[in-house]
């Protein structure tokens, strides 16, 4: 045998002799660690007494874990180098070491949970609510792992109860503080006036800490929904539907947005945009806070409100501002620029989701909006005419023609002999006979004449204007003919006079169209 082989053999023998001793030391250390951890946990979480500091146990647990890791490495090396005579002994030591490692991990886990409890309580007392929530979340995650030894079952159950209690208490405290820092105040001044106030505390860091905490506890979404509902009902809708006064006051502690309803009259669009701009600038200044890495408080409000809010704004305010006369369109273009600026504000503060583009579309083609609005108004007038009372009649007179020469025919002659060749139409050909017609049908034909005059006037430069207006005139007539019998069906079925009157109306429409 060479000198090198002898040296290696001697080293292996020395290593084998030291392993049992090291294993015994680790077993004793794990036993002491288990006893210390168990006593600490029973005192603090079963007896609910003030326990000692766990710093010593943390250090001891880390030291034992390192020793176990080192011994595992040495056993692994020996298992691959020793002869089969000692393989059984090595396997036995390996199994014992695995058991020791499992017990050490459980002890370290218990100490870590105790440490997280201590940090959570400390952070909660010092108003670091989000940090405290993170510690509680860490505890919940560690307790969810299924690696509990039988002798620690009671301790783990006590830890779960303690964690649940802290979770409920901390989340309730955070929610109570949030409602104090961000609060709605409703006041009825008199029978016709109301005031709503949104009070927001100044420290934005505290608000962000609170909303992140509520998100971690799983109670953020209900608060966002409540806030968005109050914002829409008490602020945004009143700004759109009525004349309101908005005031903003800042002091060292908080800021207050107040909205007072003045009258219920429809406000001008310029006032609506001005008031809404104040509201959203206030929200951006004080509540531009992050919920987590990917979500913002204002953007979450937008997910709840944007589509509904913008639709109502366009329908009840902006659309009503579209002028009815071509001469007023230039002033309306200035208003469209203000609408675009308001839309840019909503985009900048991330209130509008990516798919909410109603304001962009509304501002996209002013001339087309004007034409569509004009057509909409014509059809609306036609619909109102269709609902008018058929019994409201007016006589229609036809001036009689001067008597002329009339050719008489002999009934005894053959049909061929009585054929008359007309070289010109009689003067009274195509005249509508004198009768009674409804006032509504005269209003309808006056409307159709107005539309056709616009159609041929050439004052509107938009493409296909004449075609669209001609189709609108046709639609107004179709609307009257189709829905009037439905609206007045009872009268038409029960009173022959009404049926005759509607018959006159329809023939009057046909006569006017031919004329």
UniProtKB/TrEMBL annotation:
Example GO BP: endoplasmic reticulum to Golgi vesicle-mediated transport
GO terms under cellular component: cytoplasm; RZZ complex
Domain named Centromere/kinetochore protein zw10 middle: residues: 176-385
Protein name: Centromere/kinetochore protein zw10
Name of one Pfam family that matches: Zw10_middle
InterPro entries associated with the record: ZW10_C, Zw10_middle
All copies of domain Centromere/kinetochore protein zw10 C-terminal, residue ranges: 432-514
Organism of origin: Lygus hesperus
Residues that span the membrane, as ranges: none
